[in-house]
TrEMBL record:
Name by which UniProt lists this protein: biotin--[biotin carboxyl-carrier protein] ligase
PANTHER family, per database record: BIOTIN PROTEIN LIGASE, BIOTIN--PROTEIN LIGASE
Organism placement in taxonomy: Bacteria, Pseudomonadati, Pseudomonadota, Alphaproteobacteria, Rhodobacterales
Uppermost EC category: ligase
Catalyzed reaction equations: biotin + L-lysyl-[protein] + ATP = N(6)-biotinyl-L-lysyl-[protein] + AMP + diphosphate + H(+)
Keyword DNA-binding: no
Organism, as annotated: Pseudooctadecabacter jejudonensis
InterPro entries hit by this protein: aa-tRNA-synth_II/BPL/LPL, Biotin_CoA_COase_ligase, BPL_C, BPL_LPL_catalytic
Domain of life (superkingdom): Bacteria
Length: 261
């Protein structure tokens, strides 16, 4: 199913400073790093980053296909947790914050913003997406898989993006893209820090960091749910990670939706 390339990128610098909490695997080709994480979870001894140079069947949110031009970043963090599902899901905000910090090393930071629930925008276009899956039993989550796709060298063509979706952009359009290996090193370091904050202090500091860089905070946005569309002023993201909009009929806290502005 996949070829493990890990020894090829164990360069001394990254080997020495790699965050000790995480193992890592680099695959030349795989169907999807999310699927690989599902396969690995039963035997995994600890949290593991799984990166792939090529994915044959990558998926985005809501089962949409995810296009990965060569040289772009694709990885899944199989993260060991022991949380209830609501707590586990908040890791998408930690990853969004870590992604922003990592991207800010390559593009002008003021061009980056975070779109609820878990996209990173660069100059208003989508540069990175996050996909979360929980693995567990009996109301507890044992593992959370956090998939990350970043357009480093190329954005997928517009015709491969669904109607109404945000214009895809690449790091290369605004700066010098790092190699996927270097990107992983820094992302893992930044995420490791966010995860330590989360374990020590809970969602509070992550929420504040996320809100600091939120796109369109205080402005009118539209949340599209399966059966309704809600337009209102983007007030905040609450302590559950819900989007809070003030509408003509009062405040609404929204757990899951696609957001447009
Ligand atoms: O829809 C989104 O915005 C989320 C995109 C997530 C894509 C990444 S690429 C690595 C991982 N493997 C997948 O199949 N999907 C995620």
């Amino acid at each position: 199913m996949s070829t493990d390339l890990t020894p090829l990128w164990d360069a001394p610098a990254t080997a020495e400073f790699w965050p000790q909490d995480y193992q890592r695997t680099l695959l030349a080709q795989v169907d999807s790093t999310m699927a690989e994480a599902r396969r690995m979870a039963p035997q995994a001894s600890g949290s593991t980053w799984i990166m792939a140079q090529e994915q044959k069947a990558a998926t985005g949110r809501r089962g949409r296909p995810w296009s990965q031009p060569k040289g772009n970043f694709a990885a899944t963090l199989l993260l060991r947790v022991n949380d209830d599902p609501a707590q586990a899901a908040l890791r998408s905000f930690s990853m969004a914050v870590a992604l922003r910090q990592t991207l800010a090393m390559s593009v002008p930071p003021e061009q980056l913003s975070l779109k609820w629930p878990n996209d990173v925008l660069l100059a208003g276009g989508k540069v990175a997406g996050i996909l979360l899956e929980a693995i567990g039993q009996g109301g507890r989550v044992d593992w959370v898989s956090i998939g990350v796709g970043v357009n480093l060298v190329a954005a997928p063509p517009l015709d491969q993006v669904e109607d109404g979706a945000f214009r895809p952009v690449a790091v290369a359009d605004y700066g010098t893209p790092p190699s996927p290996q270097d990107f992983l090193f820094w992302l893992a370091s930044h995420f490791g820090h966010q995860e330590r904050l989360f374990k020590e202090f809970g969602f509070g500091p992550i929420r504040r960091l996320w809100l600091h860089d939120a796109a369109r905070l205080g402005e009118t946005i539209t949340a599209r749910l399966p059966n309704e569309e809600i337009t209102g002023r983007f007030e905040t993201v609450d302590e559950n990670g819900y989007l809070v909009l003030t509408t003509a009929k009062g405040a609404r806290a929204i757990a899951a939706a696609d957001v447009y502005f």
